[in-house]
Design brief:
homodimer; about 90 residues; mainly alpha; 434 Repressor (Amino-terminal Domain); 5 helices; about 10% strand; DNA-binding
Chain lengths: ~90, ~90
DNA sequence: ACATTTGATAGCATTTGTGCTATCATAATA
DNA sequence: TATTATGATAGCACAAATGCTATCAAATGT
């Protein structure tokens, strides 16, 4: 079984230019993932969250299922009722 | 002279529903602002940064001048060469 | 003075995200 | 078993972001 880490390593070797794309995907995943976890931790449904944001459930679902990468303001709009915020920090 | 803080206070009183919009605008501004400051601190031009991101200078300018709110992946793409990253944290 | 750099802006075509509505399969529940 | 809740997904119209190219005024450097 090839793991995700194996795949990343493979791609970085075969096509170094892809490295930044991988990092980018992982950055997005880390943020959206945190969003999903928080919603589940709070035990609220996509519909409830969407209602709190004033947007349809389909929009939340599209983002959580990685069918689209959200706009910055859309992301913030969703994170707000979850008690989450975005912070800028320096790369270590 | 009416300050920005005065204006915010005013709007929050007159139209409480606008409060979240103000917070949203400020959240975006905080992130984009950090980006601008970092680029200036590094002393690199929009063109250089854009080149590092593989995008036109006009795209960077549009975002820095708040003519458009960036997509999450576009934002990450720009922050990367600046040594900046986005972090999710809990609202205090 | 002249040339160069810089940030902002324009127009256009294209891509992408979003709202809206509705449906569906599955899981949880009465 | 019937009902309901949930997440995913579809199609559509519309709004918005992006890439690309080019231009411009102002600042900077020679």
């Amino acid at each position: 079984m090839r793991t995700w880490d194996d795949y990343k390593k493979h791609v970085r070797e075969v096509d170094p230019d892809m490295s930044k794309d991988i990092d980018e995907v992982e950055s997005v995943a880390a943020i959206v993932g945190a969003l999903i976890e928080k919603r589940n931790a709070l035990g609220i449904s996509q519909r409830e969250l969407a209602s709190l944001c004033g947007m349809p459930q389909s929009s939340v679902a599209r983002i959580e299922s990685y069918k689209s990468t959200p706009n910055l303001d859309t992301l913030i709009k969703i994170m707000r009722p979850l008690g989450l915020r975005l912070t800028v920090s320096a790369t270590e």
